[in-house]
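ESCALATION

Customer reports they have been waiting on this structure for their group meeting. Please prioritize. Original submission:
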Amino acid sequence: MSPFQKVVDLKKDVPIPLYFQLKRRIERKIKKGELTAGDLLPSERVLARKYDVSRPTIRQALNELVNEGLLFKEKGKGTFVSKPKIDYGFIQKLTTFYEDMENKGYQLKTSIRKKELKKPTRRVAKKLDIECDHKIIFLDRLRYINNEPIVRVFNFLPYKNCPELLDIDLKNKSLYKIMDKKFGIRYFRAEISLFPTVAEKYDADLLGVKEGAPIHLMENITYDQNDEPMDYFESRFRGDKGKVIVTLFNK
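Update from on-call: job pushed to the front of the queue and completed.
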């Protein structure tokens, strides 16, 4: 039976907008598994008749769900349920992207676009608490989940901590596991800043999204067991493929 076979009327005598009520109902149907990836939703006309509201109200609810990545539209075909977004859960706990995605059963792949020795900018030197004339190792990596490009990462690491890293194959490996195993440097804590932004042309081409598409920008300073900066990195995650969930507790 269709999830929309039995329809409970929207509440018109409460201050909650009708489009928002409908949006939340569709969200719940997706969360409960009543609607699954690839399912086709009824047309705006059909939904408007079922819920006794205007088509613009239906359109606003659907458009917001499309913008949030829960639905997608195909011209001439209709509105469909999207694949579940990847939970970028590692942002809220002290683990690495590689470990978190691996534990969730995703197939991971990493492309090393650049690995070089250079001097840091003033900004990067400040993040790493080093002088501008010190050397750093710069990594430009593109990481895939289930063969889709998901995140582009720039790493800046003090050269003095891991000079042999330039000679190590980092493809499809966890950088921090290598740091621990080869150099005895273990991550202890991290300072993370997360920003909404849009994809510039170069990022868009690599990540397979349109220029101007929403992406998550994360800036991270990772500290080692001696509480000294071991890495500063910037990550640009596809906004259409993943989400950040934060759980809060009242102490």
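Sent to customer with the following note: The first strand starts at residue 71 and ends at 74.
Escalation resolved.
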